[in-house]
Input
Amino acid sequence: MQTCFFESNSVQMDVISLTRELLSYDNINPPGNEGEIARFTGRILAENGFRTDYYPFEEGRLHLVAERGLSDKQPPVVLSGHFDTVPLGNKKWNEDPFSGHVHDGKIWGRGSSDMKGGLAAMILASVSAFELSPPPGGIRLIFSAAEELGCIGIQQLAGILKNPGKASAVIVGEPTSNHPFIGHKGALYINVVTKGITAHSSMPHLGDNAIYKAARSILKAKDFQFMAEKDPLLGFPTINVGRMSGGMNINSVPDHAEFSIDIRSTSKVDHSELLHRLTVELGQETALETLVNMGSVHTREDDPFVQLVYDICRVDRENRSLMKTLPYLTDGSVLQRLYKGAPTIILGPGQPEMAHQTDEFCFTDKLEEAVNIYREIIIKWRN
Output
């Protein structure tokens, strides 16, 4: 395996060193504070020939888009990741979460797997690809703020990009232990509110109980029929009521109640149609507010890009138990639509089971392997 280095301000950095640098930034969301890490990353890429553009998300929070070698002849490969991380949690860490301490073949820290290790590997692979064999369509790196609370950053960025251009393929560097995944379900999160009239609980006939209305609507949601055919990759859509609240005290008729609906969708359902049907079926007693609205990611397994990635990652195509889809959401949902259905793969060096965990780590050999995988994809795709 070839180890890659690059020069930044006369300092030689490899993927482990760069990951350590990225881990030193506290990007816990909220508040995120992605401005400094975005500019640090942008300086590295600018020093290595990339054009860099920063887009504001909020005060002190930036997205970074970096491009090099773009051509009118064919679209670039897009590599995507996010700067922000989740909170540390209540459990005490045995490692300093911002030190990037390396031992036992692991690099430790908040974001090491999800997903600053992936960012470091993408940066290094992109820089070294141009040194070895410049990709004919070039590279576009999209590193977003505010991913961890529902991918809201990439949704905002997609609406303000000066020129998103086209893409020949998209790689999202979320933690997969360097195994490529070709899809995940979409998500439609809905908050449902019911209103009533308050009264003393000894005289409930004088009031209008909002909890009873919510209960009726919850049962309707439970029995909701999608009437969707099975998606060959993603299966059937699902619905779950995950939260419910209402009322202020035991001796009053509640005049307010609300609950949340989590729908995981496939390519065989339309979110606008789902919202309309839910509104009709839950009835006039309810008011629906959409919290998250993201479509599924799905790429055909016989797509040439998928087949190239499978070859590079040495995927055993004969393994019938091979996992092809992920349970979680990614920015790929927005990017695949932004780039008109471009083949999209989720592939990163982090350990999926370490995402959001106390004492998060990433294996160092997975980071080094990811650099080689990304670089080989960049160089071989359409070359």
Notes: The mean pLDDT is 95. Residues 115 and 174 are 6 Å apart (CA to CA).
